[in-house]
Amino acid sequence: MEEIRVTSWNELSERLYEGSWEEPISRFRSNFAFRGLGNAAYDLKTGLIRLSGSAEKLEGHLLRNFIKYSRRDAVSDNSMWNWLALAQHHGLPTRLIDWTFSPYVAMHFATVRLMDYEHDAVIWCVDFVKTNRLLPERLRAILHEEGSNAFTIDMLNLVAGTLPDYDRLVQGECVVFFEPPSLDDRIVNQFALFSMMSSPTARLDHWLEQHPELSRRIVIPASLKWEVRDKLDQANITERVLYPGLDGLSSWLKRYYTPKTR
Fold first, then answer.
1. pTM above 0.90, yes or no
2. pLDDT means over runs of 10, the chain (262 residues)
3. What does the alpha-carbon distance between residue 177 and residue 70 come to, in Å, rounded to a whole number?
4. What is the CA radius of gyration of the chain?
5. Cβ(5)–Cβ(221) below 8 Å
6. Domain residue ranges of the chain, discontinuous segments joined by +
7. Which of 17, 40, 96, 133 is the most buried (most CB within 10 A)?
8. Do 221 and 9 meet the contact criterion of CB atoms below 8 Å apart?
9. Cβ distance 157 to 79 under 8 Å?
């Protein structure tokens, strides 16, 4: 896997948009999903795996009880994929990982935690169009029929109604990227999508190590973080926008008025 250590704001922007030109349509359309982390040492473990239990046993219990205790009108229909997306969105440990289509949103999450400013940050970039080529034929056929590069929950519903059904469909490890429904402004403003491995115990970072051509890591030195953060704030890429509401507003103001420590 390629790892790129940038030295300036301009180089960071150029690297994140690198390879986004699509000659057939003469437009800039990136095929990458981005995930920003405040410490370059952080991995891509799911919340489910971080529970340190038997992920394959816990997954069903967590989701079943989330559905049982949620409001009846929490989702627009009773699709398991809707519930899974809602659960991830509200912090339940699942096999999903949050990503964004937006390089600037990824920059935000790489620089938002002031407690990480002593550490280099990283932005993971995964070519989800290329990862689709490694999917089972039935899943690739759905993407082809829809003319899409990423799944929706309706598309996933066509092949599996439950996670066990999905796991039986997929033989071997692979990753699906799908767009969550527009549950609220946060999902919309963060230009979000999720990755999902083909089993509750599978690690995306381990899988990417076996397919180094599919991803790259862009490392942001700790010394560059303040500049990146200040320029993102001026571009209005802040908690106030990405987490609409009083909680996001308070988080932004607290961070924005925290004095620079070095």
1. yes
2. 95 95 90 97 93 82 92 75 91 95 98 96 97 94 94 93 89 92 90 94 95 97 97 97 96 94 67
3. 25
4. 19
5. yes
6. 2-256
7. 96
8. no
9. yes
